[in-house]
Known about the structure:
Largest sheet: 7 strands, parallel
Distance between the termini: 51 Å
Helix content: 25-40%
Number of helices: 10
Structural class: alpha/beta
Order of helices and strands: EHEEEHEHEHEHEHEHHHH
Number of strands: 9
Amino acid sequence: MSSSTTQSGSVLLLGGTGKVGSRIAPLLHAAGVPFLVASRSGSAPDGYTGVKFDWEDESTWEPIFSTPISAVHLVAPRAEAQDAMKKFVDLALSKGVPRFILLSASIVAEGGPLVGKVHTYLRELGEAGKIGWGVLRPTWFQENFLSEHHLSALKKENKIYSSTGSGRIPWISAGDIAAVSFHFLTAPQAPNTDHLILGPELLTYADLAEIFSSVLNRKITHVDLTEPELTSRWASVGLPAEYAAVLASMDTAVRHGSEELTSDAVRATTGRDPRAFRDFVEENKGTWAQS
């Protein structure tokens, strides 16, 4: 039985134009599952159906439910939006939405900051028999190296910066996260638990520098900074000061082993191994080419 026949209604992709949501949409399209791409503009790429949605404007919430929704891909719009997210879940629940899949992170414990309390809320609703639910907790994205703060250092300086020391990370691709989310959104049964979504190997930043050097055919060096030095660096390349400090503190957590994790969730869900970091670099090597 195809996933599109197991439930009626459309999948609602909040954060539908983001790193993960934009990769779920083609999977739903290929499977023939109806879906809506939510964004502040209300427009969607590739001829997909877009709906206007703004976390800051509650007047945009209710109109989404003019058509039945079979599942919601929940993504936080900012660091602290838990009250708004719970309010939206309550509205969706009142409209008969049966399933919620939350995109969280490996570092976010249930009940903690960021979306930890939303995680708890979904579990409690699930245990009360009101919804099917799931929480994806991916580690650091491989695609972070396509973001400007890493991109310019790689291209112009042949360097990658962190304050992770010899801490290791099982870098994951956004495509693999999307594949797991697609499964949880459309499978006959929701997972009703949380899953760590991790890549296939634990790598230090020094290991990454070796991979970049090998694939790009030039010497890439890892520069290991202190947390204050990294905060200053991220601020100097345009990240907001508060966000720069949070990112740097996460690196310190990595230094102390926070991401030394293993999980077979990608293989168990999709039937294939997650993408290796070297394959990510090979696929995108033109991005870091020096002119």
